[in-house]
Design goal:
By secondary structure, the chain is mainly alpha-helical. Helix 3 runs antiparallel to helix 12, helix 5 runs parallel beside helix 11 and helix 7 packs antiparallel against helix 15.
Amino acid sequence: MESLNKHKEFKSGDKATVSAAQEILSGKKKAGRLVNLLPFLGPAFIASVAYVDPGNFAANIQGGAKFGYTLLWVIVLSNLMAMLIQTLSAKLGIATGHNLAEHCRMHFPRPVSFTMWIIMEIVAMATDLAEFLGAALGFNLLLGIPLIYGGLLTAVATFLILGLERYGFRPLEAVITIMLGIISVCYLVETILDKPAWGDVLHHAFTPQFSGAESVLLATGILGATVMPHAIFLHSALTQGRIKVKNPVRLRRLFRFELIDVIIAMSVASLVNAAMLIMAASTFHKGGLTHIGTIEEAHRTLEPLLGRGAQWFFGLSLLAAGLSSSTVGTSAGQVIMQGFLKKHIPVWLRRLVTMLPSLVVIAIGLDPTRTLVLSQVMLSFGLPFAIIPLVLFTRRVDIMGILVNRRITTVLLTLIAALIVALNIYLIYQTIIGG
């Protein structure tokens, strides 16, 4: 089975998009008009959904409720990291026609590649657990139905959304972008209602600090929820065959358009992430409700504090985040398996298998929010196994050609990988040895 984009590029619904993009890249259409950006927008919006998934809700709500605006800088720093990482992931697909998982299989020894596949499959399972639980919670909070029925509705809904892939990449991109828009509007309303202290927001957005071991745990969870390893693998697959270009001038032009796509999509995701923590800090922490530790408590407490509308917007945003990110997570799992093993299973079967752990968690009554936070910590531990290969490949001129990294880019990405590893080591020390 060919890669995700190679499989989709022959769909008739995509031909107009690809044709328009090729005309712009060749100079037949002026590229300065805003409407001419449209054929290039999409891949980063799909990847960005992973940065506003239900794991973010859990980590950010707990962080904001317990520590106020203290950890807001983690969100700002994480999103800047994510923007650079997703740019390089997209560039890898554009420059080489192969995604990150395929490069790992081609350039690493087989035992190393196989071990990385196992790790990334575990990460994908943790990701899917967060996304599936979040959507199930969204149905539960909005409709008042038992969580197990919300899980079943989530399964049906994601099957339907994934079915759009048969019509090409554009319909799925459109649906995911609409859901991202829903999440953004909901949190815009929430931010207006909770009236944050903007002076404190600005101060903590740029002042790194912690407040004990638990804040380090939550910071790691926020980092894992923001810089998502499966999204790094997915983005390179979304760009690898979407628009094929070989001419050096057109290749650079295509990368510039993709850079705009990343900046727009990741900026939206960054603002939504910040709004989550700001809402929890200005509503719960400010009101002395530092014990708010679950999504259900947050939803229930919002009504007396901000009104019924805030409660409804919160539930709707959680549902949209869960459904869209669960769909994207399944696609990422497909990319990881196909890239590392050159094997493919039907997407419905993968969706069926990966949702089983979530249904088990729901059935045995584990705390969904705590499970979400711990799943995000697991994602943070998986990040080096995505970022380090990305550094190694994008710095090589024999792989990247004219789009090879500049030295400063490689240095920055290396520092990011080192920071993530250091934060995880500190987390282990504080919570196990120090606790």
